[in-house]
Amino acid sequence: MLRFLLIRMAVTLPTLLGMSFVAFAIVAIAPGDPVVMELRAMGVVPKPEDIAAIKAEYGLDRPFFVRYLDWLGHAVQLDFGVSVATGRSVAEEIALYLPATLALSLSALVGAISISLALGILAVTAGPVTAQGTRALTILLVSVPPFWLALLLIHAFVLNLGWARLVGDGSVSDLILPALTLSLGAGAALGRFVYERVTAERCEDYVRLAIAKGLGPMQILLGHIAPRIIGPLATAWANTLGGLLGGAVIVESIFGWPGLGQLILQAIGQRDFPLIQGYLVFMGLIFFATSLLADIVVILSDPQLRRRLSRD
Amino acid sequence: MSMIRLTHWAAAAVIALPVLAPALAETHMTIAVKADRYSVKEDRFTFTTRRPAAQVAETAVRPDSNFNPSPLLFKAWSYEDGVYMVTLQDGVTFSDGTPFNADTAIASLKLYDQNRSDFLQLDQESFAKLGEYEISFRSEVDSALVIENMTHRGTSLFLPTEAMAENPIGTGPYILESYDPKVQITVARNPDYWGPAPSVDKMTFRFIGDDNARLLALQNGEVDIVGEVTPQMMLSMPQDGSVVLHQSRPIRYAALMFNMQGNAPYDIAANDLNVRKALALAIDRDTLAQVLYGGFGQPSTTILPGWMFDLGDNHAVGFGYEPDEAAALLEASGWTMGSDGVREKEGRKLSLRMVAAYPNVSTVKPMPEMLEQMFAAIGVGIEIVEVEDSGVYNSTYFEPGEADLFLEFASNNNTDPTYLLYNVFTTMSPWGYAVTSPGGNVDELAKASRVAGSREEVVDLVREAYRSIVDDHVSTIPILTVPNFSLSRPGVSVTMSEYADWIDYGNVSLGQ
């Protein structure tokens, strides 16, 4: 297992390196001079020496590859520099926003898993009419854009019923609507996956044997099918979590939720390049961590894989 | 006192309590603003010096109703032979009790030398204490407009302390209570403020980036005021009285700027004054004013509003809506109508590229499409390039001159009358506006205005420069002037300022 993990991490290193280069290059070639933008935003009429001083401060007066290598050297120590806009370190900036995004993403993931299991199992076990209805609902939820769903929920629960606040103070109750917005779409997508996996497994011989032995549907589902599909489901959950962490920009914006989505939107507008680069690398690491976690769950849930890795 | 009287007093107190309680309750106002733009970096310190929470520290002077500097921490001043002589306001203390006098004023002013946003450019060696409340200093660039620039909130005076980034100490009506970066900042009334006490005890500024979310939060009663209002918010503002609009006098301008470089293929307008005049005459400003900014914009023949710096409403003649005259001008220049409705001359179509807009196209929507229709009516084809990002606008289109027309929505936020003229309308512009500047006499007027001896002389030169830009060169076409806006729930009265940093939220009246 340890060997597998080490190999897995070693294989990821070139990917992370490539990702770091892309993150650095994207920001470096993006239009808009962050130095001039910063000075103008401050209302400063820049003198050539002001511009030169700030460019030197951020290393923008050096060749691209020299800057990249220097940045990479610091990045491996998780030092992504200082935000141009706020003067705080990039790590501090991410730390300011991360708890809100983690809370939102994890809540949405829990919601999405619950919704997906309910929808998927209902679609498999219910009668034909209910199953068709469930599948139609799933397709509808997958198709609805999150911003539209968010506005619909705000209109219903905030403005009409008054059950929730729009921006609130970041308390748990304020999390419900944005988490629900994210989890409905993600849950529906996962629900289709659950339905397809369960349907596929029901055709397997071991399920027929279980039926022949007289086991009930729930016993078969929980005792036989669930262990077989938990690995692929974990991979899907991990991908969903990665997507929720990085992709909740619009929902965070609509609900005024102070998460990483707000951070990156503002950073792009201000050409806060240390922050954008740090964010991109951080999100890459998040995807790496979640996919590694999924791989571990797959191994732990599959006895054959466990045995093979033990032999190796 | 008898037992009966005591009982009466007690009963009266119990009855009066609910009536008196609201009057005695602390007033706490929540204002939604767009983003947390504060920097706590030592050499780029902007923490609490800008809106929304520009209430902790005060500037030396403040802009009066005509954008002229008026006393605040400086009671009086004079400028002669390159030396500024200043009498300070007496009886002022910083919020920690330190007196504001010649020593602390000089220490505060010196803070700006270490800041990259030092546009005061004071000669650090020139500070002199002339008395307990009198100081003198020089400009390191011999500017006669230092006092004007001190109306900028970025020049607010802080007491130099080690913990400035956590607890800035100023002389303002409020003191910092808490700062939750990116979430909110709260200021509480300074009980020892030297001036008139503000009416609101405590103010919380909530950072809400999304325009719709700010508006919905107001409708839902989660905030009392929305401090940064965009045109989109005005379009979706409910008309049932649940949201109240407050506006200043017009301050921002929407204008079309021509590429004046004369480099092909974007050289048609630069080389033909009649084309520029024709476009100016083809704009139906009244219709644009009705559609945009909730109908609160005003058709304009000048770039800056007449009230500013006492420029006067008619400091430029400008252009009205005269499509027939516009067509005649184009005919006179040899642009004849083509079969496709676009004029042409010597085989070249009168088709122009228009980039919309600075700072972003959302601020002027749907003006680009309306202008396209108006220009099409006189036979001018327009290719619209819509840009939502100021970095792309500048780098891709404006600086390289990759268009014929640039639509901009901006304002003069400085009491220095030469500031906008010099930086946006001359070939000396440090922000790249040489592309759209006519040069020649406008450059000369702008240079002269910067070294003029009196403010009257400065304003005369600035007035003449703006007139020449609009009437002689037609390098910029004024379209609309637009007020600053804020929104509130019913019952709240906001005293607006054209200068967004100077909206006095501390003195709004709060209804129930």
Map the helices and strands.
The complex is a heterodimer of chains A (312) and B (512).
Chain A (H helix, E strand, L loop, with lengths): L1 H28 L4 H8 L6 H10 L6 H12 L14 H36 L2 H16 L2 H15 L11 H31 L2 H8 L4 H31 L1 H6 L5 H11 L2 H29 L1 H9 L1
Helix pairs in contact in A: 1-13, 5-6, 5-8, 5-10, 5-12, 5-13, 6-8, 7-8, 8-10, 9-10, 10-13, 12-13
Chain B lengths: L2 H22 L3 E6 L27 E3 L5 E3 L2 E7 L2 E6 L13 H9 L17 E4 L2 E5 L7 H4 L24 E7 L3 E6 L12 E6 L3 H9 L5 E2 L4 H5 L8 E15 L14 H9 L3 H7 L6 E2 L23 H10 L3 E2 L5 E3 L2 E2 L1 E8 L8 H10 L4 E6 L3 H9 L6 E7 L6 H7 L16 H10 L4 H19 L2 E13 L3 E2 L15 E2 L2
Parallel strand pairs in B: 1-10, 1-11, 17-18, 17-19
Antiparallel strand pairs in B: 2-3, 4-5, 5-7, 6-7, 8-9, 9-10, 11-20, 12-19, 12-20, 13-20, 14-15, 15-16, 21-22
Helix pairs in contact in B: 6-8, 12-13
What share of residues are in beta strands of chain B? 15-25%
Task: List the total number of helices of chain A.
Answer: 14
Give the percentage of residues in beta strands of chain A: under 5%
Mean pLDDT across the residues of chain A is 84
Q: What is the overall silhouette of chain B?
A: globular
Structural class of chain B: alpha+beta
Oligomer: heterodimer
Descriptive notes:
The complex is a heterodimer of chains A (312) and B (512). In chain A, 80% of the residues lie in helices and 0% in strands. Chain A has 312 residues and is mainly α. Chain B is globular, with a radius of gyration of 26 Å. The model of chain B is unreliable at 1-7 and 11-23 (pLDDT under 50). At the A-B interface, helix 2, helix 3, helix 7 and helix 12 of A face helix 4 and helix 10 of B.
Can you describe this structure in just a few lines?
With 312 residues, chain A is mostly helical. Chain A is 80% helix and 0% strand. Chain A is built from 14 helices and no strands.
Question: Main traits of this protein?
Answer:
heterodimer, A: 312 residues, mainly alpha, flat, B: 512 residues, alpha+beta, 11-stranded mixed beta sheet, 4-stranded antiparallel beta sheet, 23% strand, globular, disordered N terminus
